[in-house]
Amino acid sequence: MGRRMEAPSSPASLVVVLLLGSLLLQARADDPYRFYTWNVTFGDIYPLGVKQEGILINGQFPGPQIDAVTNDNIIVNVFNNLPVPFLLSWQGIQQRRSSWQDGVYGTNCPIPPGGNFTYNMQFKDQIGSYYYFPSLLFHKAAGGYGAIRVLSRPRIPVPFDPPAGDFTILAGDWFKLNHTDLKGILDSGNDLPFPDGLLINGQGWNGNRFTVDQGKTYRFRVSNVGIATSVNIRIQGHSMLLVEVEGSHTMQSTYTSIDVHLGQSYSFLVTADQPPADYSIVVSTRFTTPVLTTAAILHYSSSNGAASVPPPPAPTVEIDFSLNQARSIRWNLTASGPRPNPQGSYHYGLVNTTRTIRLANSRATINGKLRYAVNGISFVPADTPLKVADFYSIPGVFTLGSMPDNPTGGGAYLQTSVMAANMRDYVEVVFENAENLVQSWHIDGYAFWVVGMDGGQWTPASRQGYNLRDAIARYTLQVYPQSWTAIYMPLDNVGMWNVRSESWARQYLGQQFYLRVYSPANSWRDENPIPKNALLCGRASGRRTRPL
């Protein structure tokens, strides 16, 4: 368990701490602040023509978009007007030195009904396309999500000309059953039914129209905010020039369609170079039977009607198409990221790894009910958020090291699993998928390099095929059926971080754990202190946050 950051014991120490705190605050004060007040409510929505109970933010579904610039300070005051606890999490936002703001139950006490909590985040050294979502219970199936767009600072070069417009597409599967019914199905030990449809920005078929002028180029940011299926996106009569994946500028390759797996985000440029008309933006599920499809409209401002060209064909059902496409996505080594220096100035492939972690997902039956597991352990939430328990050194909440580095091969069991790790370790993580479904994994607090993926069983010899030069850095990865995916990740962000399946039923039923990255320095240079406004619950109820 971690040590609590104690108050200084001498006047000299107090001066040092206050000076350090002042410098940290000054660094943030130099960057702009953006303030948001969000009221979270239930409301009637009809995304597939059936009345449902949806989660609205300021009356909107999807919720308001956050537009920011690298290093902006984002202050979001969330008022929970639901009759149940609530949290928001921020997909891909790294929360540097501050897992206190991550918004998952392992780090934050829920916002109680009628209560509020103010998230105080800095989008430190990040650019790109992200989104937020509700993380508790099964709220993600009720909406409550929205886009986050982080632009480069004005003096930082971007490897493409400014687009004429910047559009957001939040795509994903949807169920006609209310989120409470879906949760009830899982709680009873059963799996979810097949989704009923797909949504684009909360709307069904042709519910969205994106207007463009002929001859101009536009940026589209696409995130898969669904809970069950991968999707593919394509645009009738138009090609897509990929430019960014989850905060990394890519080599600019042209695609006719792009697979977007659960939790992932891509952005591409589309040039309106066709005769003026209305063209279909088509989104369909991947690797499913049946295939669900929806569409939006790419509307030329001088359009006289529907385009006469054939609709864009769906990609093949073969895994190889998707695997080869994923391998083709490369890091742009010469482009600037959030800083002026080129992305490729960090030679990730020349750093020796200090530890190899193998993570195998599995489906299991425990106590007569369906569960999912990682290395044979099916995660169960504790009565106190793990980060809070760690800070106050509360015993009995979790056992450090309860998530092993390798698959155990034994039967699955329930536990609040936490993996121990040290600040500045450089780890190789291999995700192994022996099942027949595509897996999608996310790691909070980090971006990592996807150095390899292939079919079959991973062995040390698999490293010979790793891309150690220009693999893409991202925050969500896919693992194909009967396959593996390997990443390199520098552990440079102290905190308690959620490692989870992006298939929300699997996550809910145990396919997740927490990675506790620890620094013995126990310094504000490595990790922010507990926020003064931190909500305390469980075994931490009644304690104080901090005196300063």
Automatic annotation (TrEMBL):
Belongs to the multicopper oxidase family. Pfam families: Cu-oxidase, Cu-oxidase_2, Cu-oxidase_3. InterPro entries: Cu-oxidase-like_N (IPR011707), Cu-oxidase_2nd (IPR001117), Cu-oxidase_C (IPR011706), Cu-oxidase_fam (IPR045087), Cupredoxin (IPR008972), CuRO_1_AAO-like (IPR034273). Residues 1-29 form the signal peptide. CDD domains: CuRO_1_AAO_like_1 (cd13846). Keywords: Signal. GO terms for molecular function: copper ion binding; oxidoreductase activity. This is L-ascorbate oxidase. PANTHER family: MULTI-COPPER OXIDASE (PTHR11709), OS06G0678800 PROTEIN (PTHR11709:SF213). Residues 40-153, 166-302, 409-520 form the Plastocyanin-like domain.
